[in-house]
Prior knowledge:
Elements: E1 2-4, H1 10-17, H2 24-30, E2 36-41, E3 45-51, H3 56-66, H4 69-76, H5 87-98, H6 110-123, H7 129-149, H8 158-170, E4 178-181, H9 185-197, E5 202-205, H10 209-218, E6 222-223, H11 229-233, E7 238-241, E8 261-264, H12 272-276, E9 282-285, H13 286-290, H14 300-319, H15 327-332
Parallel strand pairs: 4-5, 4-7, 5-6, 7-8, 8-9
Antiparallel strand pairs: 1-3, 2-3
Amino acid sequence: MGVDQHATPLTVRESLTAGVGDRLIPYLMEHQGASEGVFLSTCNRVEIYGCSKQRGPRMMESLFRAMPPNLRQSWREARGLYLHEGISCWRHLAEVATGLRSMVIGENEILRQVRLAYACAGEVGGANRGMHALFQSGLRAARAARAAAGFGRGDASVGRLAAEALQEVMQGKASRPLLLLGSGHTARSFALVEHKRCARPIWISSRSEDRARLLANEVEGEVVPWVRWSNAVEASSVVVSALAGGELPWSVEPCSSGPELMIDLGVPRTMTAVRKSFPEALWVDLEELSSKTEIRPEALGSIHRAEEVLRAHEILFALGKKREPSRTQVWSG
């Protein structure tokens, strides 16, 4: 059960992730919403995978009742909520992990995010026989599909998309430094594209100073210690947040000078409080970015190859087999 960027606004997706972290699955199991479970939250989606004796609307109602009170109503009223059961659930997971349902088709980070969600569920007791079978098969299929499609060879990422949006908005006009908050995969993708396209100085601030330093070395940037990131905001022409963890602490009064553009790639967003101090700055978040994405004609062949591989793996999963499909099976499935 879940929502994604195709039908559910960012504000709603934020409300479904508020304060849950790794605690949601144990809570659902303790309150008999599911016997097993995996919680997946990315830039594009918020999803719960689980095992239940209930079906359809009864299963969803049982899950709602088992949720913490602060989340229950948000999930009940979520626009664009979808439900997949049985083999449809496997198919959805495999397509998500392959990157076929992402804002950027074939994005590079999604496979790691699904693996991490599965691993976290195992650490809190949420993954047993049912989730092991589902995720091990789905991830195996996704790896094969991505290889067949050629996903992962280029930079298909939200970070690259954000860098393209920056170029479109600013058109190289800003000369003051760009402040990048974060040093993970999305931040790195953004920084590499920006470094190649623009001579603007790049400042990097991250909770992990070691990772910030490594990224700064790659893009000839400068590290801003995390304790001083807020001081660097006003001196920057562009501020980009690729952080997780929700709202950044901020209490500065509105300013007449400061960044011309702010890009927030977090779910939940991290700079809504910062934004209030700079009312003249342009604003881009994931909802804005999603409106700029489209499937290019040259990607259709890759999508078709990935889908063919997934269909062959789907047949094996339905039959309860663990072996890899042969090349003949892939294309005749």
